[in-house]
Hints:
Number of domains: 2
Shape: elongated
Amino acid sequence: MKSAGNPLPQVSQNELQAMAYSDPLTGLGNRYRLRDKVRLLAAERAQDPAPFTVCIANLDGFKPINDLFGAEAGDEILCQVAHRLKACIPDGATVTRHDGDEFAFVLPLVFERNGAERIGQMIKDVLSAPYDLGDRNVRLSASFGFAIYPFAGEDFEELLKSAETALYRSKRRGRGQITVYSREIAQEMKRATQLEQALRNAIIADAVDVHFQPIVRIKDGGVVGFEALARWIDADLGFVSPAVFVPVAEERGFIDALSETLLRKAAEAALSWPRELFLSFNLSSAQLMDPGTTDTILSTLARVGLDPYRLELEITETAVMTSADTAQRIITDLRHQGVRISLDDFGTGQSSLGRLRDFTFDKVKIDRAFVSRITTDRASEHIVKAIIAMCEGLDLQVVAEGIETSADADKLKELGCGMGQGYYYGRPADGAATLRYLNDHFREFVTIERV
């Protein structure tokens, strides 16, 4: 008896194999195709191991674009990337879609570092041209990790791991970076992983501390607030600079846990200060990309019992521009709750004046690069003077960072700068030392203590 309906189409063995080795979205080969190409090439060169190169490329900033414009637009970009890669790779090379927004290459005729870096630069240039999404164009950069056979590994898994290590190092250095694997880089990444694990453990153990540096009125030296600064001393690693461990927390995705711990500690310390003193706290670029940042900050303040009006958040221009729309919403929501926003490191970004126009800030912090040379470099003096005058016109408060001498302070006072911060007024100190500082420098605090 015959079955009803049309018979199912027959799929040949070759077609099934092609499907198993292909990426359905872009039509490129997939991870299995990459594996077989590498294994075949390694077998061919086993007797006389002439080098060849494996590369992984990752699209920088693809996820925010995918989230903003939708998965359909993201798929269109990936297809355009695949088309460009097929058109530009050298003869004999293979390109595959490796995973998500990552693509991989086998380059049989790339034998050494310089050749790998040249190919990486060429592909990076090709991928940096605008992508057409119909009603808009978007731009992307790409980061690259190269591994050269047999120096970075003699089998597929080892080569792939080396390329991934090189790619990770590229991503750590910023966008559009190219890294060729070496043993030194492997050791560097190993230390970064050890640092990451130690930092995770320190957060769980509540072992990352907060120190406070005074911010004063320049005209009379009176204390008006303190900036909270992260400090970590590990039993094995010793003192680890926040310039080292904060980026690790950002890159490895646990900056929220670190920041929440530090804000809680800082807010608890601020409860013992006179109420008119504010707490200044730094937000990272990762937090300004996270829509949940506002709720996290406000709930932390509520648990501790610190009035949002006493909190001032410092953000950099670079952090603002990483995800401008999300950052704008976060800034607006926090300001509505009474939190003040300060633009940190002013003058070091590419278009700081534009940020003052596009975003609403309460305060500007003049970068120490200008302040440190204010008495010796006429250009720096005029830049600081112009910033102060501009902020006065925009009704923005001004803080000069990095004041280290009385001459610096006197010059800033002469120029009419409202507030200052630096070693001249006080070094960062722990909570107990900060209370002693207040005893010495804040008359009202002494009165409160005696009551």
